[in-house]
Amino acid sequence: MSTNVSNFNSTLLPSVTDYYFSALVFGILLIIVIICGNVLVCLSVYMEKALKTTTNYFIVSLAVADLLLAVLVLPLFVYTEFQGGIWSLNMVVCDGLMTMDVMLCTASIFNLCAISVDRFIAVSIPLNYNRKYVDQRQIILLSATWLLALAVSSPVIFGINNVPHRDPSECKLEDDNYVVYSSVCSFFIPCPIMLLLYCGMFRGLRKWEEARKAKLRNSIQACRKLQHATAAAALPPLSGLPPSLPRVIERDLAQTSFEEMDDYPPPACHFPSEYKNTPIQTVAYADMQYVQTPQRKRAKINGRERKAMRVLPVVVGAFLFCWTPFFVVHITRALCESCDISQHLMSTVTWLGYVNSALNPIIYTVFNTEFRKFFRRFLHSCC
């Protein structure tokens, strides 16, 4: 019997050792990728003028949270995984690790929530939205994300983990009530709010696109009528006729995206110079006179902002895919004492959550042209 047990242990030991070594290698590579990728994101927004938009300042805040996670949390987590999940350091260090883990994860999702609030305001009340500089409202949003994240994680550093008969070989959140509280505040409340705001934002964008297309069609029709009228009257010489319409107007408008339309100004129906400052009427439209009206300041959602908005759902989707399993398993273990949740499952969902910090720079590279150009140029200059 003892011989069989020793044979079983000898076959099991190499697989366990391989897992510990794989966890160490994967963890080191993950830390390097997170640091390099998020440093590139911060540098790109700092150095590239085209990327200095309000949305990207929130993305920098998200990148800072991922950077701090890679520097302050992941090394100790990888070390513990390499030790077989056994905590061998001081419990004060453990409490500091748990505090930073909760705070940075919470800061990440609060940053995503702040981005959704900022984008919703930009679409809903664009005239009051400052697109060039970070204004007071955005500073408040950025500050609130970090202050609220600190508030959610602060009970750990104030001793809520100091429970009687605490196992010094495990580093985890000991109070089940706090596990439920932190999970609800960090994930289960912000996520529905964020998704609702994004739904409202894209509904507003769709209405804005339809209104823009309709306005452009009306302008085209009016301009063509005026061109035909002036051509039929033969009042000015041919050189004085209004210029031809831009290339985009000649396309089928039904197949033209509103991003393409934004690259061209609306058609300008210029009257010949002899009509200006005079009440001369056209032949075909006797009631139409040239009137110079001052251009009204319009709210405009430019192409860069729309590109940023297109990236954000992918970032949110990746975050939910990576972190939802962790929070579901985490809160289930706290609420269901009879549920048998293995350490292997907890380790897997935790790794999946940390992988999200490496995904965001990859998403920006794939879906955003400006980020991709800067990354390519920066890497070429370094290599």
UniProtKB/TrEMBL annotation:
GO biological process: adenylate cyclase-inhibiting adrenergic receptor signaling pathway; adenylate cyclase-inhibiting dopamine receptor signaling pathway; negative regulation of cytosolic calcium ion concentration; negative regulation of synaptic transmission, glutamatergic; phospholipase C-activating dopamine receptor signaling pathway; regulation of dopamine secretion; regulation of potassium ion transport
Molecular function terms, GO-annotated: alpha2-adrenergic receptor activity; dopamine neurotransmitter receptor activity, coupled via Gi/Go
The name this protein goes by in its record: Dopamine receptor D4b
Organism: Chanos chanos (Milkfish)
Family (UniProt): Belongs to the G-protein coupled receptor 1 family.
Transmembrane segment boundaries: 20-46, 58-78, 98-118, 139-158, 178-198, 311-331, 351-367
Keyword Transmembrane helix among record annotations: yes
Record flagged with keyword Membrane: yes
Domain of life of the source: Eukaryota
Major localisation: membrane
GO cellular component, one term: plasma membrane
SMART domains attached to this UniProt entry: 7TM_GPCR_Srsx (SM01381)
UniProt-annotated location(s): Cell membrane
Gene for this chain: drd4b
Annotated PROSITE patterns: G_PROTEIN_RECEP_F1_1, G_PROTEIN_RECEP_F1_2
Topology in the lipid bilayer: Multi-pass membrane protein
Keywords: Cell membrane, Disulfide bond, G-protein coupled receptor, Membrane, Receptor, Transducer, Transmembrane, Transmembrane helix
G-protein coupled receptors family 1 profile domain segment(s): 37-364
